[in-house]
Amino acid sequence: MKTIINEENNNERVDVFVAQVEQDLSRAEIQRLIKSGDILVNGEKTKASYRLLANDRVSINPIEPEVLEIIPKPYPIEVIYEDDDVIVINKPQGIVVYPGAGKEGDSVVSALLFNKVKLFEAADPMRPGIVHRLDKDTSGLMVLSKSEVAHEKLMLAFKEREVVRKYVALVDGVMQHNFGTIDAPVGRDDLNRTRMKVINDGRSAKTFFTVLARGQHSTLVEAELYTGRTHQIRVHMQYIKHSIIGDPIYRKKTQIKADQLMLQSYKVEFMHPTRNIEMKFELPIRADFKEVMERDHYEK
Predict the structure, then answer these.
(1) Could you tell me which CATH number the domain at 161-300 has?
(2) Which residues form the catalytic set?
């Protein structure tokens, strides 16, 4: 417990006083400490609005730093390419990229650490090597960094939209146009904070799509990201009335059914961050895509 004697700050709010002397604490943290009784005035609980008098004794019980670490856990991850700077993997469906705070479930990062892959830790120990993300329900190609120079250059390349990211998706309904652009801002749904939606004051989002094949009740499309918003392709496809088949969040009931999200990151192209050579990767379309396409009598 740290005690500070107020000598000069007469009539100053206690939360303002603490913010000045403990600059590592945010205002929100100070409010929580006051409510929990970890900030006292003259040994008594107080309110944030209390105004200090001369010689008031302010006692602060500091926040113990939360120890965060990712626990390596076995999980099958296919490595497509690896060198000293980057690793490209085929992310499985149903697994998050990194665990949330206080969670120890399966993740891409914990699986790679279990296999002794040395990812670059950067500033956040819970997100080592992360330069972009894939949704939990999305499978496919993902790039991670293993060195500081690779991390910085890849982060910049994604920010400057120099990385080509293409997905393949099976969507509801037969698309009439062979290609198009969906340019619609995406933001969080106020009625359901786990969902995203197209809203006027959302973040700019743009997706290019090309029809690859058509069935009787669905369409196989290639979607290329210009921006990378959360759930962007899923939200944009729903927005144009062609939700992705198997989407547990954004798809309405239709004739074509699938047990999982029919969305796969299948092409990635980028300049190698240290070797200055173009890297191109492509995965074959998943077997469950082909099964759905066979059921829907796709053109041969």
Answers:
(1) 3.30.2350.10
(2) 135
If you compute the radius of gyration of the chain from its CA atoms, what whole number of angstroms results?
Answer: 25
| Through-space distance between the first and last CA atoms of the chain, rounded to whole angstroms | 74
Could you give the CA distance from residue 244 to residue 276 in angstroms, rounded to a whole number? 36
pLDDT greater at residue 17 or residue 170? 170
User: What pLDDT is attached to residue 299?
Assistant: 79
Class of domain 2-60: alpha beta
Instruction: Specify the pLDDT at position 8.
Output: 67
When the pLDDT of each residue in the chain is averaged and rounded to a whole number, the result is 90
What are the sequence ranges of the domains in the chain? 2-60, 66-160, 161-300
pLDDT per residue over 246-289, tens digit each? 999 998 777 798 999 999 999 999 999 999 999 999 999 999 99
pTM tops 0.90, yes or no: no
Same fold, 2-60 and 66-160: no
Q: Model confidence over 86-118: pLDDT tens digits?
A: 999 999 999 999 886 555 678 999 999 999 999
List the beta strands (DSSP E) in the chain. Answer: 2-5, 39-41, 44-45, 57-60, 78-82, 86-91, 139-145, 164-172, 179-183, 186-189, 192-198, 206-214, 218-225, 263-271, 278-282
Taking the CA atoms of residue 200, residue 202, residue 203 and residue 204 in that order, the dihedral angle to the nearest 10 degrees is -20
**Which CATH topology does 66-160 take?**
Pseudouridine synthase (3.30.2350)
Residue/partner pairs of 238-247 with CB below 8 Å, 24 or more apart: 239/182, 239/184, 239/198, 240/182, 241/172, 241/173, 242/171, 242/172, 242/173, 242/175, 243/171, 243/172, 244/169, 244/170, 244/171, 244/172, 245/170, 245/171, 245/172, 245/218, 245/292, 246/170, 247/137
